[in-house]
Amino acid sequence: MRLRTFVWHSNNKGMKPYQKILRWTPRVLCIIAILFISMFAFDSFSHERTFFQNLGSLLMHLLPSFILVAFLVVAWHWELTGGILIALVGLAATPFIYNLNFQRTQSVNTSLWVIVMINLPFIIIGILFIISHFINRRTMTGKQR
Question: pTM score, two decimals?
């Protein structure tokens, strides 16, 4: 499958404006959320390490971003499957991130805000992909009123 076919495969013809918005909103939000998560990888640099040690550390810190990009590619083509994966990642990472932040800060409030900033966007994006799947499926099968 060619990349051009994969990226431009969306059938936007005959879609109402709200359907187009619902189709593209989770994609754009997911890209923004992945870029936000990727920003945290830049704290891996240190002056005490060599270039290759810093590069290895950067790649290690970017692993979650790489996984999320892979899930975005799945969601781009198969909205239901990708939406479920992205929502599950947001839900599954919640206890881990909460415990990690609570151990560092000893503050429930701070830990909950970190969950809201990091995990909640991916849960919402996953739900938007799932909703978009069902709305667009209804349009493509001609069952829309």
Answer: 0.82
